Amino acid sequence: MELSRRSLLAVAGVSLIPTSRLLAADTLTVPSIDRLQLTVLIDSTTSVFGASITRPDIRVVPPPITADYHTAFAGQWGYSLLAKSSAVGTARTTLIDFGYTPAALLNNMALLGVAPDMVDAMVLSHGHYDHFGGLDGFLASGKVRRGTPLFVGGEEAFCERIRGTDPDGSSFGAVDRPAIRKAGIDLIVSGDPRIVAGQGFTTGRIPFVSTEHPRVPTGMLPGQNCDRRLLDPAKRDKRFVVDDAEHELGTAFHVAGRGLVVVGSCSHRGIINTVRRAQAVSGIDKVHAIVGGFHLVPPQTRDQAMETLALMQAINPDYIIPGHCSGEAFISAATAAMPQKVIRSVVGSSYFFGSA
């Protein structure tokens, strides 16, 4: 694939930034896990013709055929991922985001035999409805264990959102904080990296350390459904702010002998920036897989997609599993450039990393 001069310069720039320079004071001692299974609960792509893949360092299991032909996996614009990890015989289950609607999330969980009380920890990557819309129904099931931690990257995740960047745009909803309290969830709101369920970690706030600066197509209403006093001073006194996704989190796991598996649920801060942040927080350079939405749909351009691809090739992960908002421009180009690395995200599919 021919890369543009801008993309090549971007690769050179990010390649020259050593991880040690990206380290912040809030680094973590990140646990190693033996095995990781990622299962797509919500994404846009569904299929009953998925292919199994078995390689020494990854196994892909397609969605199971439902026992009742009247039932089917629901695909929608949104994202939710279930991470099952194990270390020294101890298993943990982490739910990352909740998709767009409770009906789709609960339907797909039921078809996969996943009960809400199986979840040990939850992460909400950011305050967009296509990532928290299924949360209310998930909590209202009455089966979520009280005291289950929910990690959120900052107070602004709770602020009311507006579709588009016009202050007069239509509502895009807000997280139902009272529902979280009613369910007895342990809400952990922090922009610092945190260990999740003893086996994974959040990135904390993601700085711009590459040329990626995605535009976020939503607005935020400070003070509406969120506490102004806890917002960034530059935002707290405003009526309307175009989103910069400053509160967004990535989630990552360190698979022993393989490297980092980094989940950028929507990557409004840039998927390369998200990976770099995971490397900096953990002190681990090797990236085994990059998973999730890479936010390369409009208003991002094809040039931006190609630039991100070039930066990703410089990182050289073993596998890339793009879904949700990654965009066909990126996915098709990445598949052509790295056919053995790119695996599509399909609802109901599971991706296994680490020991068998």
UniProtKB/TrEMBL annotation:
Gene3D superfamilies with a match to the protein in the record: Ribonuclease Z/Hydroxyacylglutathione hydrolase-like (3.60.15.10)
Annotated Pfam families: Lactamase_B
InterPro entries hit by this protein: DHPS-like_MBL-fold (IPR041712), Metallo-B-lactamas (IPR001279), Metallo-beta-lactamase_dom (IPR052926), RibonucZ/Hydroxyglut_hydro (IPR036866)
Domain Metallo-beta-lactamase: 89-170
Keywords linked to the UniProt accession: Hydrolase, Signal
Residues annotated as signal peptide: 1-24
Domain of life assignment: Bacteria
GO molecular function, one term: hydrolase activity
Keyword Mitochondrion attached: no
SUPFAM superfamilies: Metallo-hydrolase/oxidoreductase
Keyword Signal recorded: yes
Family annotation (PANTHER family): METALLO-BETA-LACTAMASE SUPERFAMILY PROTEIN, METALLO-BETA-LACTAMASE SUPERFAMILY PROTEIN (AFU_ORTHOLOGUE AFUA_3G07630)
Name the UniProt record assigns to this protein: MBL fold metallo-hydrolase
